[in-house]
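Aggregate trends can hide what the representation actually does to any particular protein. The sequence in question and its structure tokens are set out directly beneath this paragraph.
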Amino acid sequence: MFEHSLFILELVKTTFLWFQNQASQLLKRIVLFILREGPVPRHVAFIMDGNRRFARGRLLSRAEGHREGYDRLVDALKWCLELGVKFVSVYAFSVENFKRSSEEVDDLMQLAVNKLEEILKERDLMEKHKVNVRVIGELGLLRPDVRRAAARVMSATRTNTGGVLNICFSYTSQHEMAGALRKAARGLREGILAEGDVTCRLLGRCLHTRGCPPVDLLVRTSGETRLSDFLLWQSGFAVLDFSPVLWPQFSLLDLAGAIAKYQRAAPALKELRRGSCCCCDGGSGGGDTALLGGSEKGAVSQRGEEAGADTQRRARTDAFLAMQDELLDEWIESNLVPG
């Protein structure tokens, strides 16, 4: 009789969990369907704040709180991809975080190694969504094992074209922009670029997020209302959403609220960007130089000269950017081999 009762209880539990899962899946489909009726952001960025407070509130270790945060990252990425968001950037570790206790930094480094390896085993991300994973930041500051893990995941996913996940690790926007200036200075010094080639558009294409559109929506959890030096160039016209929930508690409904906020602001955002030439990769280009008077023949000649100059400028910038790609490939290959 006792064994029969246990069987009944287990059956009830299994049935309840099945219905709960089905209801959750149905809710997700309804929410995503409604959101797709409006404009969907191309690029969403997350400041994943609140892991430590989440752990303290549940008497967990800090490492356990960060692990819970990683699980939420995977969920949020899947929600974005299913919605149609193709570019997702997350603030995983700031350069400033090196100032934390050595124990916590070591825990975060080890967690990064483990989770970067786990990303490759996420079949939904790798096989269904074909995500290109990029680990970006001051990677030279990381432990060798973290660099190897980053190189492995970037090497394994670099040909994927379904979506992009930028994991900003050992990152600040100040470091990123200073790095872009150093790259341009090197191009000038080596004669690859001319002085006139260095524009806001070129500098945007020297950022770690090269190839990604500007951030449309930036979400920060835990109630903090700061950007903490995260993607400042890329977020110049982004809609900001400061959510009160801690990152491990961030839900699809929280994301839906942020997306709805973006959709309400999208028309105004489009108008603001129309007049801007400073985008993180591309943009309006800043317009053509006006022709001030002169004969029609002279104007045609001037336009011809400008077209020739533009062709030369594009050739120089293409060569410069190809060199940046080669340097990244070299970094990946050099870090795949244990040093």
About this structure: Residues 37-172+213-267 form a domain with the Undecaprenyl pyrophosphate synthetase fold (CATH 3.40.1180.10). The longest strand covers residues 163-171. The radius of gyration is 24 Å. The CA atoms of residues 182 and 206 lie 9 Å apart.
